[in-house]
């Protein structure tokens, strides 16, 4: 399959490619890029398709969350790599942590044989049609009723269900409010230095906005004079080889997922990261005595991603759809 | 008295101060950073503890941060800049525009450069660009300003037109820049890689950097055309090419200088004055633009303007 | 919208998945009827490359010379980038013929982009080959 594509690209795209390169002085940017250039295009950050792209079904454990879990054999293999450590002896969490199942390769596109038509999708995917398919409706229902949803107090269950079913009208993130933590999910990229750890998030898995968190690991306490925030106040310390991050002081108008999962200002999250080889086991435990009957605990494995990959800038969020929605169909 | 308030921040390059903070920690203690540098270690400990106790009493229950440098004192140089293992200056730190190492209402201390000492030329617009900017109404200026429309400042706006601090985190192979404004970040590649082939335009552009002696030279292309380089209409084309220079001449000072080339908009390249940033001992705060009602109001104004002109 | 890209990805790896992560803003069916299309020819006047949907604006002139502004919604910029579609492929001033899905609320000048044909003969299909052949 790949060879066919290569020969077609060579046969039909070479003129466009030559033109493309010749017309671009070094460092400057041509304003037009035709489909013929596709075959030579690497993903903008400079790395291409990677065999390690790990995709498993979304919501494998019935939490209603979109974060994927890589296949167990992939995790096992990646764990076998040596674990890098910093000079202070702790594991180095630094890296590009292939966001829960998405890679950055140009994987969807396909050029027609005559080189004139570019398809964003290589194969026909299930098309929604004028109304949602029964399968889709069932899938969405399942996400609202899974076995590992947040353990809400009985008096809140109906409200959460209502919000989830009307998500496109009720979700603050729908209109570009920051998703906040922990809805943003596991970090896309981590940079670890002696006194702090920086988490970078881009849109692939998480927010439709760029976001970062700075986790202080210098032994400080929480600062209660800080204003409540979307991403909380994070302090971290090592327990053996596990980085344990305590996050408090949240605003209360974010959701924990797309499913109407509200929380209060009493929310407290303990986030843990442990690196073994090229795998980080990432876990959050969300406590909220005002809304939950017990902590909500979610675990995922992050596999070190494509070599040279970094969190990418995401375009800003501007919402235009809400005035045109005719029903509550959600995604 | 007003003193430097620190939201629990600690100097990343000064473990000694870090120890002091832990020693003097009785809940929400604010420590006096200028005192630390001025008096020396022994005096630091004593002064810090005394000042902390007084502050704790004065500030208990206080919700609003106070002006940190009301007298606008410029930070001293603070000794040599730290260096990383490979011998380059370590640019890491939280950097505030101006010379006071924090927010201040003192205009002189907030200033990134003194135009009498290092004047900055106005942008050399081509006639068509100058005419376009001249034709902008006040409403156009407002709608185009990132401070109104909440778009990211981008490059080099995040340095030229941004009063908020940034944080640099330097590790081998990359320099991460965190912007307090709108909680944004960019990753600047310092591992020798070339620009990406035909990157999608972005507000921060595609940035690759190399060291030129003790100066990090950052080359940026493919910058989203929605960014402005000043607040008075300096738009740019897709041909804009930005070269940034970052250096840390001493512990407390970061210097930023930028050259903007834009053959479609400018008659020649433009270079900024060297702009000063000073080391802060606070963390970045979270800043999101989530209740922006200005844009709709300006858009209505603009409609009225346009209708009035018909 | 992003369901199509996701479908391609899943096929490549032999896994099927209906579920779309939070990237996909809303169901296409909440706003558009993907069984009905309309076609206009116009000139691109503006691009809004934003999340969660890019927007393409075009001025369409009718036979009498009246100009109407149309807006077309696309997918998230990050998704488009991952399928190889860059903002630089669209320019203000491009004369294009756009096939788009109809808005359900009756908005006549709003569509969900399906195919964009450029004057020089190249075409970008927001979907697969099979998608573009069906009407």
What does this structure look like?
- The complex is a heterotrimer of chains A (331), B (310) and C (135).
- Chain A has 331 residues and is α+β, with helices and mostly antiparallel strands.
- Chain A has 5 helices and 11 strands; from the N terminus they run ααβββαααββββββββ.
- Helix content of chain A is 17%, strand content 20%.
- The longest helix of chain A is centred in the N-terminal third of the chain and has 21 residues, at 2-22.
- The radius of gyration of chain A is 22 Å and the shape is globular.
- Chain B has 310 residues and is of the alpha+beta class.
- In chain B, strands 1, 2, 3, 4, 5, 6, 7, 8, 9 and 10 form a 10-stranded antiparallel sheet that branches.
- Chain C has helices at 2-12, 77-82, 129-133, and strands at residues 32-48, 55-61, 67-73, 95-103, 110-118, 123-125.
- Chain C has 3 helices and 6 strands; from the N terminus they run H-E-E-E-H-E-E-E-H.
- In chain C, strand 2 and strand 3 form a beta hairpin.
- By secondary structure, chain C is of the alpha+beta class.
- Classes of the chains: A alpha+beta (331), B alpha+beta (310), C alpha+beta (135).
- At the A-C interface, strand 3 and helix 3 of A face helix 1, strand 1, helix 2, strand 6 and helix 3 of C.
In a few lines, what is going on in this structure?
The complex is a heterotrimer of chains A (331), B (310) and C (135). Chain B has 310 residues and is of the alpha+beta class.
Order of helices and strands of chain C: HEEEHEEEH
Structural class of chain C: alpha+beta
Class inferred from helices and paired strands of chain B? alpha+beta
The global form of chain B is globular
CATH topology of chain C: OB fold (Dihydrolipoamide Acetyltransferase, E2P)
Give the rounded overall mean pLDDT of chain C. Answer: 79
Distance between the terminal alpha carbons of chain B, to the nearest Å? Answer: 58 Å
- Taken as a percent bin, the fraction of beta residues of chain C is 35-45%
Specify the helix fraction band of chain C: 10-25%
Morphology of chain C = globular
Percent of sequence in beta strands of chain B:
15-25%
Mean pLDDT of chain B: 80
Query: How many domains of chain B?
Result: 2
Number of domains of chain C: 1
Subunit arrangement of the protein: heterotrimer
> Helix segment count of chain C?
3
Q: Please name the two chains that share the biggest interface, counting residues whose Cβ lies under 8 Å from a Cβ on the partner chain.
A: A-C, 83 and 73 residues
Please count the beta strands of chain B (DSSP E, at least 2 residues each): 10
CATH architecture verdict of chain C: Beta Barrel
Question: Within the largest sheet of chain C, what's the order of strands?
Answer: 1-2-3-5-4
